[in-house]
Specification:
The structure holds 2 protein chains of 2 kinds.
Chain A (H helix, E strand, L loop, with lengths): L2 H11 L5 H24 L7 E8 L7 E8 H10 L5 H13 L11 H9 L6 E4 L3 E7 L1
Antiparallel strand pairs in A: 1-2, 1-4, 3-4
Helix pairs in contact in A: 1-2, 3-5
Chain B lengths: L3 E7 L5 E7 H10 L1 H17 L6 H13 L5 E6 L2 E7 L1
Antiparallel strand pairs in B: 1-2, 1-4, 3-4
Amino acid sequence: MDEQGRQILMMLAEGKITADEAERLINALERQQPELAAGAESRPKARPKYLRVLVEDTSTGDEPSRINIRVPLQLLRAGVRLTSLVPPKAMTKINTELARSGVPIDLSELKPAQLEELIDQLHEVTVDVDDSTSKVQVFCE
Amino acid sequence: MPQLVTVRYRRPDGRWRRLFIPVLLVLVVLLMLSPLLVLAALGGLIVGRVYGYRVSFLGALGGLGQVLWALPGARLEIDDGQTAFLIRVF
């Protein structure tokens, strides 16, 4: 029981309030607490600032190989903006190569706003691959 | 804008070595080399025009500036047997 509930019971024990008043106060307290909890849940979470990639591979030898990369999300945004500078001729070549590799994506159709939105939603992404010899984790922090 | 880049790498004898690179110092060196850089940029623009790759010079400059400004906090650490290094940007 929390501090307020304990105070109500003490007031009842000391005879300062009647049992009916104590019941009403406890009911009011119970109504108030779910609202407070809901308020805490609706508080926005801190926006992640970094994309983290962790790789650990033990298949190569005794010492595990490790890769630990932390990329500021702002850097991803800046990189995405750079793609708008890719000349149309180069974009056509990239699209052709992508299609040849089995990835039929037209990069010229990707708008900067869409890429921005993609980065904004990255904080929801968590990749966790764990097998007997290697472990890969991708997440935002 | 990044202030300092630290590079830590493992030497063949197994000992670690750390380098501190102040970005301001790099900018001073770049400033000294600026006449050459301007020539290189012009050369790049001309080659681009010849081969049909038209890139906005100001756009490229702005884009590179944004990338540079977004670098603080970046960290790259690789440890793979003989090769091990850690690069951090502050």
